[in-house]
Amino acid sequence: MQEQFAIILANEPGVIEGGVEPLHDMRVAIRRLRTLLRALAPACGGISAERMGERFDRLQKALGPARDADVLIGILESKAVCRILEGLHAREEVLEKQRALLEQRKETVRTLVSGALYRRLKNDAARFIEAGCPAQGFDRPKLRKQALAALRKAMDRVRRRSVMPASCPPDAIHALRIACRRARYLCEFFGPDLGTSVSALGQRLKTIQDVLGDVHDLDVLVSELENEHVAVPAALLRAFREKRKRLLRTFRREWARQGDWTADAWA
């Protein structure tokens, strides 16, 4: 927890300056800290840990729109998209709107991270983490048991969310991606204590999560383009649909390749 909190603090200046990578790194650290708070709440404050986690969750979601806008601009400026849209006014129109939106969202982020609510969250989090780490240390067998319980719960969520229609709708893909990411974080945190099979599970989850992330980026981009109310060339939408199909084939292949990898034999 201290390590993730330190990463959040270290990236503050870059976020206030409008940096893209500091914003990404801060959001990742917030998500990882939130995962720990959720998993270890009984060991470090119960209800107060959950409340602290909810506050960080609201902060992470508030920072998300700026990151999304930057990702979408990157896709629109990619060589593949440029070839399809070469010479078309629609591309520049969409890009200009996205750039303007990104600047607006960065200003919102700067205001948030420079504000009183964020300062209070930082101060409360620092006190909570210090108080939640007893000088005598944790009961490691008890902590290991709790980590296993949290991981089993996370993997149950992965299994449930992997059941979806053949079309793999955007909401279902996004939900499965989040479930994989949370379970993966637990594997990375507790792999050294729980064994190599848990660390290997984390690598499998990352492979799946990465593919789902590419699908999600495309889904968000198509949604944003539809909301722009500009004449988006049919060729571009076709290209995005074809790429989504290819990514879904990769996802299904990787999922099947792992066999019954979501079973708890690793535990």
Note the beta-strand portion: under 5%
N-to-C SSE string, H for helix and E for strand:
HHHHHHHHHHH
What is the radius of gyration?
A: 21 Å
Q: End-to-end distance, in Å?
A: 23 Å
The average pLDDT is 83
Q: Could you list the spans in which at least 5 consecutive residues all have pLDDT below 50?
A: none
Domain module tally: 2
Derived from helix and strand composition plus strand pairing, the structural class reads mainly alpha
Secondary structure tally: strands: 0
State the helical fraction. Answer: over 70%
Secondary-structure map:
Elements: H1 2-10, H2 12-16, H3 20-39, H4 47-76, H5 79-85, H6 89-113, H7 116-131, H8 140-161, H9 170-194, H10 196-228, H11 234-257
Helix pairs in contact: 1-3, 3-4, 3-9, 4-6, 4-7, 4-10, 8-9, 9-10, 10-11
Written description of the protein model:
It is built from eleven helices and no strands. It folds into two domains: 1-134, no CATH class; 139-267. By secondary structure, it is an all-alpha fold. The longest helix has 33 residues, at 196-228. It has helices at residues 2-10, 12-16, 20-39, 47-76, 79-85, 89-113, 116-131, 140-161, 170-194, 196-228, 234-257. Helix 3 (20-39) packs antiparallel against helix 4 (47-76) and helix 3 (20-39) packs across helix 9. It is 81% helix and 0% strand.
